Every structure is written in C-alpha cells, then in structure tokens.
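FAQ
Q: What does a multi-component entry look like?
A: The components come first, one per line:
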Amino acid sequence: MKTTTILLALTLYSSVNFAQKIKGSDTVLPLSQKEAESYMKSNKMAKITVTGGGSGVGFAALVDNTTDIAMSSRKIKMDEKIKLQEAGRAYKEITIAFDALSVIVNPENMVSQLTREQLDGIFTGKIKNWKEVGGRDMQIVVYSRESSSGTYEFFKEHVMNKKNYASSVLSLPATGAIVQSVSQTKGAIGYIGLAYMDKAVKALKVSYDNGKTYIAPSMETAKGKTYPIIRPLYYYYLSTIEKTVKPFIDYILSAEGQKIVEQVGYVPLK
Amino acid sequence: MSFKRNVLLTATGLMLTLGVSITKLNAQESTENPIDTLARSVVKIQDDLAHLKKLKFSGYIQAQYQVADSIGAASYAGGNFPQYSDKRFAVRRGRLKAVYTGNWSQYVLQIDVTEKGVGIKDAYVKITDPWTKWVSLTAGVFNRPFGFEVEYSSSSRESPERGRMSQIIFPGERDLGAMITLQAPKTSPWNFLKADFAVINGTGGTASDFDFQKDIIARVRADKSSKNEKIKWGLGASYYDGGVRQGTSKVYTINADSAGLNAFKMNKDTANFGAMAKRQYVGVDGQVSIDFPFGITTLRGEYIQGQQPGTSTSTTSPSTQPGDVYVRNFNGAYFYFVQNIMQSKHAIVVKYDWYDPNTSISGDNIGAKILAFQGTTYKTTGTQDITYTTLGLGYIYKLDSNVKFTVYYDKVTNEKSINLGSSAYWKDLKDNVLTVRVQYKF
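Then the predicted structure of the entire assembly, as tokens:
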C-alpha cells in the first residue's frame, strides 16, 4: 500500500514539475482546453493544466507567479501593468483568436433580434419587460458575468457604452452558469462567447445601425466581420519563460491550432 | 522558487488526499463507490481551503546600510545618526501583517519588528455594509486618511522614506480612531470616487490622547484609467481639523515687533491653560502613470499648508502634552518622477520635497534679535523655523516580486541664516545621506 502511494505521488510530482499552467478567462477556457488536449497527444512529455475564473484572475496569477499563461478576453489594464512592473515582470501579449460575443435568450422567447440601444436599455435596467421590445408581457431577468470577467467589461464598454449595469442584474461566476440559467428561465437574457453556444439557448441577432440590419452571431458573420460584437482573445505570459511556453503558443497559431479554434466555435486569426 | 514550493505543496496535498482516499477505499469498498469517496474528500479539502484562504499573511523586511555626510547627522532618512557615527546598518522596517477577511468584515493586525523593538502599526476592524456595500466603518489604529504619501505603503514607495513634511506632521502615519469610508462597489461606475471621514485622537500611533478634543480628517479621491488603459490618474483633496491642548498659560504666535520683524509674541492668560491650539491642514495631491513604449512613467505631487501647534524647539505634531505652545503657519510639498526602463527590472526615481515650518519668516530674519520688547513678550525664531529642501536620486532593481534593491541619495539643503545661534546654519549642513537597501516582501 505504502509503496503504491509513494510511487503514485512521485509520478504525480514529476508530472506536475514539468507542467504548464494556464489560468484566466472563462471565455478562452474551452479553446485552451481543446488546444492543450490536442498538443499533449502529439507531445507526450507535455503536461498542461487549464483553469478558468475570469481574465482578472489570470492577471492576478501572472503577478503572483502562479500561472505560466494568463488567458484574457480583454486587454491588460493599467493597474495590472503597474503591478507586473512593480514585481519586475516583463510580459508579452499575443492574440490567439477572435470571439463573437453572443446575446442569448431562452428558446421559448419570441424575441429574436435587438438593437444595441435596446440591449443597453435592458442591461442598464431602463427596459424591464419583454413587451417593450416586441415580446410577450414577461419580466426580463438579466444575467451577467462577475466584474472580474473580461467579458463583463467588454460588454459594458462596447455594448453599454460604459454605462453601469442595473443593480438588479444577477452576476454569475462562470459562462456555463449563464447558459444553464438562461436555458431554465423563460424571461432570461445573458451574453456568452460563441464557443459556449448551445441548443438550450437562443442567440439573438443584433443591430448596430438603429435597426436597419440585424446580424446573427456565427462563424461566417464573424469571419466576414459583419457581426458587430467581435473581440480578440489573448494570451499573456512572462518574457522570462518564453522558451517554455512558446512551443504551445506556436502550436495554437499553427494551421492545426487555428483549425481547433474554429472547431471550438471561435474565429481563427486568418 | 515560489512555483516549486507551490508544486511541492500541491503534490503533498494530492499525496495526502490520495493516501486518505485509498485508506478509506479499503475500509468502505464494499459499501461506497470509490469515486464518491474521493469526491467527498476533495469537497472537504476545498471547504477547509476556503476557510484558510480567509486568513492571509504578508510582510516585508527592509535591511539597509547608510552613510551620512557627517558624524551624528540629524536626518529624516530613517532617523538621526548615532552621536559618534556616520555609517550604520539597520533593519528599517520588519513588518508582519495578518488579515482575516469575512463576508463583510475584516480584521487587520500589523506589527513592526526591528532592532529598536516591536511596535504595533495597524490594529483595526473594518466592516462593510452588506446591503449596498458603499459604506465601510474602520475602527482601531490605522493610517490617517490624509493625502497620498501617508497611506502609500513603504514597501511600494520608490524613495526609502516619506518626505520631511509627512514625517513631521503625521509621525508614524497612524492614529487611533474611527473612520467612515464611502465608495461604490467595483461594479459601479462611481467606484472611482472615494470619500473618507475619520475622527481620531490626534496624538499619532498608539499614543493615548491627552486632551478632550478629537481631531477630524476628511478626504475625497478620484482614481481612473483611460479607455485605452495607457494612462492612470488620481486626484485627491484632504482637510485636517484638530487641536492641541495648551499645557501652560503661555501661547506664542507670530507677530511683528515694533521694528516690523516677525517673531513669536507671547500671549499669557490663565484662560489659555487647558484651551486648544488649532491644528489645521489642507492638502491637494495628484498622481499619473503613463504607459510609454520606453516604460511606465509615474509622476506624483502633493501640496499641504496649514497651521501647526508645536513647541519652541520642534514643529513635530505632539504626541504628549506640550508645555508652552508655539503656533506656526507652514507649507510643504513633494514631487516624484519614476521611470521604469522599458519592461525591465530597472527603474530610476527623482524626488524633490520641501518643508517650510514657518512661512512668516525666512533667511537671515530667522533667529534675528528682537528690537523691541526683547525677553518679555517676544521670542526669537530658531533652527526649528528654517526651511529644508531635499533632492533624492535613486536607482531601483526589482529582482522578482519578492526582492527589491534600492540605492538612493538624499541631498538635503537647509535655509541659511547668520543670526542663528549655531554657526553651522550659516551654510549648508553636512546631512546628505546615501542609503543602500534590500527589501524582501511576501
């Protein structure tokens, strides 16, 4: 028994010792997981662990030196730059894919399209009932990510013009939780990365020209850049460990890696 | 180093978990699914970990070697030099901080351990209202919420010490009292604004109050980043209103004598004994950090003016009952320029500060003999009334997130007067200081 436990522990220790850790954005999480799985298949010695928590969590881990790569669905903030500088850590940023941020509702909701202004109204709390935007007489239940999420900030900046979320908005800790909650609540609305799209929820078409044209989020509209809510997805890593992380990053940027980007539901760089 | 330690801890934790799980599997294999047993163990560990994560320890040690221009130099670069020495090793700060964070409350205790002894730096409880999360109450010993430099951590500050004025009007930075803070939660667009209102003893640190009146501090701050996350700025305004109990019937204020020379005029009245001498400051501060291609540049500045009750020999805020009180109008400021070199571990700092403890008098008038009423109702000013400016030049090397080296030179210049008792003040004093410091922070 003791021998088995020790051997198991030694095996675990040796594996962990050569592991690369990736932490951060829940949006980037499914992509990193798939890329890591595929990379490890062809590189038997490589061990990569991927965990979410939000872009802010990834940057905090980069400062604390508890991750090798920080995944992010937003640019690094000035505060985070200063913290890295204070820690004497030089970092590099790389775009690995694009995402079409999708607004989702319950499949039973008859509303299938909204303008940016209507989305702004819903998330700031000015519009409270679906009948105000052409739907049934039903209260709108708004779900959002937590403030540590890059998606939370991107949506606030690009859709809500930096306005404040309504106090009634329900914050959820993970994108998966938003999908689940929206699928179970008839009057719900939320936003997720394209890769999280599920049949249990319905993606809305969005208009950024006051209702003249409505575009649905899809690989085609994202690639053609007709869908208006597109954002880059990033990896950040410390310059000092570039040699360690570069093979994996090069793999993601390779044709094979970018194919996985598309398979997962995100938009390849080219 | 930290990564290896974390890995080792993780492996040890997993080993223990698996060890426990395997033992349990043997004991319960006929009754329970092994996966359920393992899952239960993991949940228990997660619960324990969540509980432990509420308690956080941090700290830093600053060990340094200093060389002064002269033996026994009076200095604000870590205190006066010993009477017979111009060189010294010292542990300038040895901090250990424990913070326990509950759902809406926080316990903070920080001690300072150096060769001079052990002292309490922070000991406070902070409670945030659980409904709006806009209002916090802090009670105990905490940093006085005035300006920027007083609260800015010594472990992060680029110069080894705060400016002379900060050290004189807020010695030890802390005070005993209670504070209400208004700040919106991070999810609010109003989060960039912060207001503090504190009621404190006014004696500084953990010293017991010696008068009946409590002092108040009010401060408003705004901190924001630009949309492109290339610029971060902060602005603040602070107000201090308090007093010092007069220990005798004599109070000295600046007035012109019959020849028009400003000097201390004595007001002797039995009503003065036990009355309060006003202590009042106003200050404004600003900070900006810009992310240039050649590295992050930071500029900071703060200006304070006001009225300070002191003694005949000192303008430092009294922590014990003074005898005769001398009231002076003062002003002072500091400016920092910090340039990080690209994204490297190197940075340079230039700092300039001044402190004029008595704005009513300057130059050769300091210490000048009073022509009228000498020795009766007027007293001359002295060395405690001269202005000091300090130009600091420093180089910082950040080895990693734990270790920082600083080499810093303080060029101190004093106002000169031929009328001061000591001829040393006829020229610049030899009190420049070179500091070489290593800091470990965790």
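Q: Is there any commentary attached?
A: Sometimes. For this entry: The CA atoms of residues 54 and 101 of chain B lie 5 Å apart.
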